[in-house]
Amino acid sequence: MKNFLFLGIAIIFEIIATSALKKSEEFTKLIPSLITIVGYCGAFYFLSFAIRTIPVGIAYAIWSGVGMVLITIIGAVFFKQIPDLPAVIGLSLILIGVIIINVFSKTTGY
């Protein structure tokens, strides 16, 4: 279960890094650029702990799926990038897939 905590921390770092990437304006702004670099390093660092017992494909599916949904919400709230209906449906399907993996798959490592 500790490895899912590491995966959650990796997702948080990735969301922070991606949000800062938007603000870095192609790495022309120092502070957002540094946050982006540190955030992605932290994301991969904690992901490396998570994949000790969680299969890499499952961990990556959860990491990217949850990250996509959360960064879409952040984009809508902070950057006024409102997804249209097809995007919401697609993101919902991704989230449903992550839930199915976690609830029903025997390959998640627990």
Automatic annotation (TrEMBL):
The keyword Metal-binding does not apply. InterPro entries: EmrE-like, Small_drug/metabolite_transptr, Small_multidrug_res. The chain crosses the membrane at residues 30-51, 58-79, 85-104. Its main location: membrane. The keyword Secreted does not apply. It is a multi-pass membrane protein. It is found in: Cell membrane. Keywords: Cell membrane, Membrane, Transmembrane, Transmembrane helix, Transport. GO terms for molecular function: amino-acid betaine transmembrane transporter activity; antiporter activity; choline transmembrane transporter activity. This is Small multidrug resistance pump.
